[in-house]
Design brief:
The complex is a heterotrimer of chains A (about 425), B (about 180) and C (about 775). By secondary structure, chain A is α/β, with parallel strands linked by helices. Chain A is built from 17 helices and twelve strands. Helix content of chain A is about 40%, strand content about 15%. The C terminus of chain A is likely disordered. Classes of the chains: A alpha/beta (about 425), B alpha+beta (about 180), C alpha/beta (about 775).
């Protein structure tokens, strides 16, 4: 599996190939903990947030919300304690970048969190890691212990008045806990149900106190932003999407892996066909899901020759979205009906059950898929599935319902032939490609 | 009236809640204290503690639930509602080695079905079952974040990636 | 909610609403129907059913109106093709796995899911796949459960948590496998059945009424509970002279308790039509002989003769008249009138556990209603155990604390369950409640009292500080532990704690449904208490005329008292320890068979209405008393009408002046009796008396650290609850039967052996 940067100098992946890359020593020798030093020496919390704003860093978990703005929502005058929570509940199908960032360079995450904690005035911080990534929790615990011993955690960090603690926390198998409010419910020891927004976590999050929840990749971008300055970081990418982005690539390519690309990388076809080594076994590209499973599936002809720019705006223009940056590449042997069924089963399994449309809708959709797969498809089933998706989309409590609907909607519209062959007769009515 | 017992879903399965409360060694208690110290609210430690009980007792049995309720000063139902929400918490016994094969899209298209068949055939059990000696349980799980190294499974907490049938044989044969 | 007014536009009409109003409430209030399942007033928001969707301008998606607080200029659409489709689709989703077995569902006919489907649902069913099957089962002797009908609105789990503080029922599992249940599948709680009541579907059902009747067959009669002093309003469902069930569903009744009832109110009614009910008047012609059935005429004549003879022989004061805190105001009033005007005895009393006379005689502040308790800012609970003895009060306290951020201060020798919600728990030695009141009466007593009670003196000053820092209502509650002097001081405490921004309200916690009414009717004004009368039998008391029976605690240690009487006449529903000594037993009608009023611990005068005709030959108590008076030559002028009795009550009892049945007819607008608030009293002698009492208290009592078991009072078997088989199961510790499995009708009643026999016989 490939890990590395293409089209730019590696930032987040700068140290991943070094020997003992997860040790404090190696991290420090390669520029580590310079950013926190700079912050503590010469920057106010507002300065940090301003740099973040200038960097145009957008949340890498999937929603793409500008990070600097998110941090600025935390009320400064709140008498309550504040929390920074790292969302390492990476569970989006096709996404595995955070895993390697933590595995290879845990101190980068710790430094990012320290800077965030300083900027927000947080004394206690948690890294919520999905339960399956137990080995990463162990790696993080070792790194945290190293940092603590080196005076980088606890009271008087680097001899300054600033002090804070970072703890690891384990999930236990629930995709929904990647949603920030569900993550906070889970961290409080509850069932992992999302919570109502407003109030947003920035105002009332963990233990009803102001909380910022950021993805691993977002936090690990912070030290470089501080070191090079927000503007320089932004210039690595595009105006609205600054910096670099780490993509996960899986499926039918010769070189799956974790790729760091500048935001706005040109273009997606080159990325798949050249950077990722082209299609496995020389087969034809059929479909790509570019942002983890919760985005629209793309047809090959939406990519080939279309010069799709790889940033938030470019991929939206091409008919999908960046999401978590998890590419699932599918060749001509894949039946998109089957792949969509697979993802729908995923959403059914992971629906938390809180709200009606998501709970019942995903259950029903899986049943329809299974019935069709068992040979009992009816021509009207495509329309039925689209209508069920419409009834879920925009009506569910949290975005999981939408995420379940989008793959189906796009698959039926973009790959009607794959559905048609299962539905006995034509599915033409009302379905356009 | 039919007296045939009707198949009950696991959640409604009666559990004999005795008065027994699990107890643990001082080392484990210290480990638990360590987790409790991380949080301002005890209840936050519920998942880490469930994993510990599970590690020590194989699964979250009734005495384990009673222990957690007592230790965290919660009601039994609080433990139950949380335990049944998370797929990694087992309220029923599982084999010593729980083989969890990732079935989500990337693994699926990269050969998961062949791996699953091979594992089941080799162990002589169906999905969701445990071998008679209680050693292996096989189940399909959703995405484990190993898409670039598909297909894969996790045994306990260990990742086994880029699986082939030969590699599966090697791994399973190596487990005592 | 502030008084500031903002403008909201709903469906192109402009409305002025108070700032902070919730959109769903506003829409409904203005006549725009909005469907919902999970939204329930004064419970935590859920926003999960997604039925109450509306379109709000400038918001990207449809919004749940239950989560939206109105803002000025908000433009709302509640009806459109888009919204109707969304609502239709939510119902389609909810019905997808629903078994659609309305014809065999107890909820059919009063089911919110059914009604919503008729009103908002689609016409066709598109779901043709296999439904997720889940078997029916019992969760407890009281609660039947059909999980497949569940829509996961979680009203049940929320009332269990927020109303009852028990958290006994919860949602387990995830996604489509989510179920409402308990660990181990057996519900261990106070069995209030509120989860059943708030369930909008047939998921949680009354296990004692399973498949007994269809809702539309039942005549619904609004009445008042006959157990504790909280006076919950309820709807009695009867069919053909039989009381089938009791509910508080808001479609039938809308009292101060909302849909809340406790186990006794909801399930404790089978005594009404029980086969052990007395069928005719009975006369024991000879001491030691048997009770022989008699006609009413004969029984009344016989009783009158015997009473007349006793009065002639020993004087009228040798006759005792005993009322009851369980019977109506009308009945107690008739007894009081009988004692004072017919017999002319000064010896009359009601069989209550304690008298509130010293409290009412010195009342220095209004009584708190249950609504006041919900919105109080500070609640001081001295003694008592409302979660077992006055469950509605306990519910209001919990909601005041959790939803209204009220501060609860508990003074008790036992860590009762409410302590969990308390801001301060003053854990005193047993029997020290009077000492606590003595300390409250004057701060100079605090040090001595604290020493006696086994607490730190600063605990009392902290209490005092909490009260004096309160802005809003302070409610002071007390149980039966207080003596007369302490009651007097509590009744006057308002004078020391009242302020411009602080109201002090009082809330006594008597034990019975009409404890307050029995006091109001004057039955506690007699020269002797019930215990004193029993001690005097055979000497100064020669004959007793008793409505209801003596309490077990009255007869304890006085087993021979009743045998010493020359004559004992008793009104009763059943044969009891009291009727065992009676010379005449007169079959009385139960609360379900009569009209009348009870007065609860709020001082609310509440209607009791006839749901079924009196069973067998039973008669209302007041009517029996009036017949006896007539036989003794006094016409009470009641003309066979309870309302005429009440009219006379209103004329003679100042607190009830102006009241009439029509004034009391709307349970949603309850009427409080107007008790006389006395001028501040000189408390020095009461304080002095208490000082002596406190000094005499032993100061080595052990504090209990054990929280009492849920149900230790509620599940106790009394004369009435004895007639409900499920109470016996609960009193025995709610054992889970081996056969609690699936079959709805067999699992509770059939043990494993019987089930085998049934199989053999091919049944």
């Amino acid at each position: 599996m490939f890990i590395g940067a293409i089209g730019c100098e590696p930032l987040q992946l700068a140290r991943v190939h070094l020997e003992n890359s997860r040790s404090l020593d190696v991290y420090r020798k390669n520029g580590g903990y310079q950013a926190i030093k700079k912050v503590l020496d010469s920057m106010s919390p507002d300065d940090v947030i301003n740099e973040l704003k200038k960097s145009a860093l957008r949340g890498r978990g999937g929603a793409g919300f500008p990070t600097g703005m998110k941090w600025s929502f935390v009320p400064k005058d709140s008498p309550k304690p504040k929390y920074v929570v790292c969302n390492a509940d990476e569970s989006e199908p096709g996404t595995f970048k955070d895993r390697y960032l933590m595995e290879r360079d845990p101190h980068m995450l710790i430094e990012g969190m320290l800077i965030a904690a300083y900027a927000l005035g947080a004394k206690t911080n948690y890294i919520y890691t999905r339960g399956e990534y137990r080995y990463l929790i162990d790696i993080m615990d070792v790194a945290l212990e190293e940092a603590r011993a080196a005076g980088l955690l606890g009271n008087k960090i680097l001899g300054t008045e600033f002090g804070c603690e970072i703890y690891t926390h384990t999930g236990a198998g629930a995709y929904i806990c990647g949603e920030e409010t569900a993550l906070l419910s889970s961290l409080e020891g509850m069932r992992g149900h999302p919570r109502m927004k407003p109030p947003f976590p920035a105002v009332s999050g963990l233990y009803a106190a102001p909380t910022v929840v950021n993805n691993v990749e977002t936090l690990t971008a912070v030290p470089d932003i501080i070191k090079m300055g927000g503007e320089a970081y932004q210039k690595l990418g595009t105006e609205k999407s600054g910096g670099t982005k780490v993509w996960s690539v899986s499926g039918h390519v010769n070189r799956p892996g974790v790729y760091e690309l500048p935001m706005g990388y040109d273009d997606m076809e080159k990325f798949i066909m050249e950077d990722c080594g082209g299609m496995l076994g020389g087969k034809q590209l059929k479909a790509v899901i570019p942002g983890g499973s919760s985005v629209y599936i793309m047809r090959a002809d939406q990519i080939i020759g279309k010069d799709v720019r790889m940033d938030y705006e470019g991929i939206v223009a091409a008919g999908s979205s960046v999401g978590s940056g998890g590419f699932i590449v599918m060749d001509e042997t894949v039946d998109v009906f089957e792949s969509t069924k697979n993802l729908t089963e995923f959403y059914k399994h992971e629906s938390c059950g809180w709200c009606t449309p998501c709970r019942e809708g995903t259950d029903w959709l899986v049943k329809v898929f299974k019935r069709i797969a068992a040979g009992h498809g009816r021509p009207e089933d495509a329309q039925l599935m689209l209508d069920l998706c419409d009834n879920i989309e925009g009506k569910s409590f949290c975005p999981l319902g939408d995420a379940a609907a989008w793959p189906i909607q796009s698959a039926i519209k973009r790959f009607p032939e794959d559905f048609r062959k299962h539905l006995v007769t034509s599915i033409d009515s009302g379905v356009s490609t | 009236m039919s007296t045939q017992p009707i198949q009950i879903q696991p959640l409604s399965q009666p559990v004999n809640i005795g008065d027994e409360v699990a107890s643990f060694s001082p080392e484990v208690e210290a480990e638990i204290d360590g987790h409790l110290a991380k949080y301002p609210v005890m209840r936050s430690a519920i998942l880490p503690l469930m994993f510990i009980v599970q590690r020590e007792r194989g699964y979250l049995d009734a005495p384990g639930v009673a222990y957690l309720a007592k230790r965290l000063r919660l009601r039994i139902t609080d433990i139950w509602e949380v335990a049944t929400f998370y797929s990694m918490i087992y309220t029923q016994p599982v084999g010593k080695y729980h083989i969890q094969i990732c079935k989500t899209l990337s693994c699926k298209i990269m050969g998961e079905p062949g791996i699953t068949d091979h594992v089941c055939n080799k162990l002589g059990i169906r999905l969701g079952e445990t071998t008679a000696d209680g050693k292996f349980t096989v189940s399909l799980v959703e995405c484990l974040g190993s898409c670039g190294t598909a297909p894969m499974f996790q045994i306990g907490f260990d990742y086994h990636e880029n699986l082939t049938t030969e590699k599966v044989d090697q791994i399973l044969d190596g487990l005592k | 909610m502030s008084t500031e007014v903002i403008k909201v536009n709903i469906n192109s009409k402009e409305f002025e609403v108070p700032k902070g109003a919730r959109l769903i409430d506003v829409c409904r209030d203005k006549g725009f129907d909005i469907p919902s399942f999970c939204y329930y007033s004064d419970l935590a928001l859920q926003a999960s059913c997604r039925m109450c969707l509306v379109r709000i301008e400038k918001m990207p998606k449809l919004q749940t109106s239950c989560t939206i607080i109105c803002t000025d200029g908000m433009i709302v659409t509640t009806q459109s093709e888009e919204i109707e489709k969304a609502q239709r689709s939510m119902l389609e989703f909810l019905l997808a796995n629903h078994p659609l077995d309305c014809p065999v569902c107890d909820r059919g006919g009063e089911c919110e899911l059914q009604e919503m489907t008729f009103d908002w649902g689609g016409l066709e069913e598109r779901f043709i796949e296999k439904k997720n099957y889940a078997p029916e089962k019992y969760l407890s002797p009281m609660v039947a459960n059909d999980p497949q009908r569940c829509i996961l609105c979680k009203r049940c789990t929320r009332v269990c948590d927020e109303w009852m503080g028990e958290d006994a029922i919860e949602a387990g599992g995830r996604g489509a496998n989510t179920v409402i249940g308990t660990y181990g599948g057996w519900l261990d709680c106070s069995q209030c059945g509120n989860c059943i009541e708030v369930c909008p579907t047939g998921t949680l059902l009354d296990g004692t009424y399973r498949h007994q009747a269809r809702p539309w067959e039942l005549a619904q009669t609004i009445s008042t509970c006959s157990y504790c002093s909280d006076g919950c309003e309820m709807s009695l469902g009867s069919r053909a002279g039989e009381l089938m069930r009791i509910v508080a569903r808001d479609r039938y009744v809308n009292g101060h308790n909302g849909e809340f009832l406790c186990i006794k109110g909801r399930f404790g009614h089978p005594f009404v039509n029980h086969e052990d009910r007395l069928r005719t008047p009975l006369i024991r012609y000879k001491k030691g002989g048997k009770l022989i059935p008699a006609t009413w005429d004969e029984a009344i004549r016989y009783t009158a003769e015997k009473l007349k003879a006793a009065a002639a022989a020993y004087g009228p004061d040798a006759l005792g008249v005993v009322g009851s805190p369980r019977i109506t105001n009308e009945a107690n009033y008739a007894l009081h009138k009988f004692a004072t005007e017919v017999v002319g005895t000064k010896n009359y009393a009601a069989t209550d556990a304690f008298s509130l006379k010293p409290f009412f005689d010195n009342l220095g502040a209004p009584l708190a209603t249950h609504r006041d308790i919900r919105y109080a800012k500070t609640i001081l609970l001295i003694g008592g155990e409302p979660e077992e003895l006055q469950p509605l009060t306990a519910k209001q306290i919990r909601q005041a604390v959790s939803n209204g951020a009220a501060k609860l201060i508990v003074i008790n020798s036992v860590p009762i369950r409410l302590v969990e919600h308390a801001a301060q728990f003053i854990h005193i030695r047993p029997g020290m409640e009077n000492a606590a009141v003595w300390a409250l009466g004057h701060s100079s007593n605090e040090t001595t009292a604290a020493q006696k009670m086994g607490i730190e003196a600063n605990e009392l000053s902290a209490l005092r500080q909490t009260i004096t820092e309160t802005e809003g209502d302070v409610v002071i509650m007390f149980g039966g532990e207080l003596n007369a002097a302490a009651q007097m001081i509590v009744a006057q405490l308002a004078n020391s704690f009242r302020a411009d921004t602080r109201r002090v309200l009082l809330h006594p916690l008597p034990l019975y449904n009409n404890s307050v009414g029995a006091h109001d009717m004057g039955m506690m004004n007699g020269a002797m208490s019930v215990a004193e009368m029993l001690d005097a039998t055979g000497s100064s008391i020669r004959a007793l005329y008793v409505a209801g029976s003596f309490l077990p605690e009255h007869l304890r240690g006085r087993e021979e008292a009743l045998a010493k009487l020359d004559f004992l006449a008793v009104h009763e529903l059943f044969e009891t320890d009291t009727t065992a000594f009676a010379d005449v037993v007169l079959p009385a009608a139960s609360f379900a068979e009569i009209d009348g009023t009870f007065t609860n611990n709020d001082g609310l005068v509440q209607r009791v209405r006839q749901s079924i005709p009196p069973v067998h030959q039973a008669k209302p108590d007041w009517m029996i008393t009036a017949a006896l008076a007539a036989e003794l030559g006094k016409d009470f002028g009641f003309q066979m009408s309870a309302s005429a009795v009440f009219r006379e009550i209103a004329e003679r009892i100042p607190a009830y002046s102006g009241l009439r049945y029509p004034v009391l007819k709307d349970e949603s607008n309850p009427v409080q009796a107007r008790y006389n608030i006395v001028e501040p009293r000189d408390l020095s002698s009461a304080l002095n008396e208490l000082k002596q009492t406190v000094a005499a208290l032993p100061d080595d009592g052990e504090k209990s650290n054990v929280t009492p078991r849920v149900g230790h009072e509620l599940f106790k078997i009394g004369t009435l609850t004895d007639k409900v088989s499920q109470f016996h199961l609960l009193a025995a510790g709610n054992p889970r039967p081996d056969t609690v499995r699936v079959s709805p009708l067999y699992q509770i009643t059939v043990d494993a052996k019987l089930e085998r026999d049934a199989a053999v016989s091919g049944d």
